[in-house]
Design goal:
The complex is a heterodimer of chains A (182) and B (198). Chain A has 182 residues and is mostly helical. Chain A contains 6 helices and no strands. Chain A starts with a helix and ends with a helix. With 198 residues, chain B is α+β, with helices and mostly antiparallel strands. In chain B, the strands form 2 sheets. In chain B, strands 3, 4, 5 and 6 form a 4-stranded antiparallel sheet that branches. In chain B, strand 1 and strand 2 form a beta hairpin. The longest helix of chain B has 32 residues. Classes of the chains: A mainly alpha (182), B alpha+beta (198). At the A-B interface, helix 1, helix 2 and helix 4 of A face helix 3 and helix 5 of B.
């Protein structure tokens, strides 16, 4: 049984990472207005929320299976950052990223309760969290040195960076327009 | 206060003017409900998802990927284990019953490394006065965190069992079957070497 949980731990962690990347790509495409005219904005937003929620669910599943697989981690290790004696840095990054995801997802539902700037700042926690997840997976992941994993990470990074670049360039462009019009 | 160029303004419902949280929480006749602001968001009492199909597809794909990848990783781990061709003790020696009558030569003896699907196990024994006085596993699967966790617990138990049994019939450690089997094979190899030198 613990073997099954162990393989599920590895696969669910990777799938959670893919879902996070997909949510980020979706968010950048939507917020950069790069989605075209044919698809309604509501579709992008709804899918973005769905992907974020699923990523969180798969991350919880990843944690539960890791605990069930008897890897030597206690509940405290996966709840309190910096406590784990094994892979302390990697586990801490994973735990912090998980909390960042929790905060991001659960502040999205009552978004209207927050000022836009505050909510936006909270929402952008996802970006450092994603980097932390990448480091966590690279350091701890059993498969992280395999060719297919490296290829997958390269593809995901490229897929995230492209809309991120579009978004950043769009922001710079709009700031410049605002500046010159002022 | 939302900024004019804030791209996230329209992610959810139309912007709400800055109000104290208590006012936002309390129903207000002056403030239109979300349904009034955007009727398309609701269908009766159930919330309508604009990307319901895509969300379902994403969830289904994620579940299938998780299960499929787990199966692939399981298969890959078995393949890599059986494909390993590190020389280990010949079958005839590894299965040989320990000879109680033959004495062991004093010294430090390294058994042949034995492979299993998780990696290699090698046992070293110290023989003094014809008895095994110390045992260790200089090599054991530790490439991944799980192997490390299991073997950190299993190896000391196997070593203790070796010192007690004084032969290769050591008790397998529950949850570390592969390591136990490889340990026994390598231990038998080390014992055979000490016998051969006596």
């Amino acid at each position: 049984m613990s073997d099954v949980l162990w393989f599920l731990t590895r696969s669910s962690g990777i799938v959670a990472m893919i879902l996070i990347a997909a949510a980020i790509i979706n968010g950048f495409i939507y917020s950069g207005r790069e989605g075209g005219q044919r698809i309604r904005p509501e579709w992008w937003v709804d899918l973005h929320r769905g992907l974020g929620g699923y990523a969180l669910i798969f991350t919880v599943f990843h944690l539960l299976t890791a605990y069930g697989a008897d890897l030597g981690y206690g509940v405290i290790d996966i709840i309190i950052p910096g406590v784990s004696k094994q892979w302390t840095t990697a586990v801490t990054l994973g735990v912090l990223a998980f909390y960042a995801m929790l905060i991001t997802v659960f502040t999205t539902w009552p978004k209207r309760r927050f000022r836009s700037r505050i909510w936006h700042a909270i929402h952008l926690l996802t970006l450092p969290a994603t980097i932390a997840i990448g480091v966590h997976g690279w350091q701890m992941g059993t498969d992280s040195r395999t060719g297919w994993y490296i290829a997958l990470m390269a593809i995901l990074t490229g897929l995230v960076m492209y809309p991120a670049g579009l978004r950043i360039s769009g922001l710079i462009r709009s700031r410049l327009v605002t500046f010159w019009n002022a | 206060m939302p900024t004019p160029n804030d791209p996230y303004d329209d992610i959810v419902t139309p912007p709400v003017p800055d109000e104290p949280l208590s006012e936002l929480a309390a129903p207000s006749a002056a403030r239109p409900s979300e349904l009034e602001l955007n009727p398309s968001r609701h269908n009766g009492s159930k919330r309508r998802h604009a990307a319901k199909g895509s969300r379902s597809a994403a969830l289904g794909l994620a579940v299938v990927s998780t299960l499929g990848m787990a199966a692939y990783l399981h298969q890959a781990s078995q393949s890599s284990g059986s494909a390993a061709t590190i020389p280990s003790a010949p079958a005839t020696t590894s299965t040989k019953k320990p000879s109680e009558t033959k004495s062991m030569a004093d010294g430090v003896w390294n058994g042949d490394a034995s492979t299993n699907r998780w990696g290699l196990v090698q046992v070293a024994i110290t023989v003094s006065g014809g008895k095994i006085t110390a045992a260790s596993a200089p090599l054991y699967p530790s490439d991944d965190n799980r192997s490390l966790s299991i073997n950190r617990i299993a190896i000391p138990k196997l070593v203790q069992s070796t010192l007690t049994a004084q032969n290769a019939n050591v008790n397998s450690v529950s949850g570390a079957t592969s390591t136990s089997e490889s340990y026994q094979t390598s231990l038998q190899s080390a014992i055979d070497q000490s016998h051969a030198s006596s």
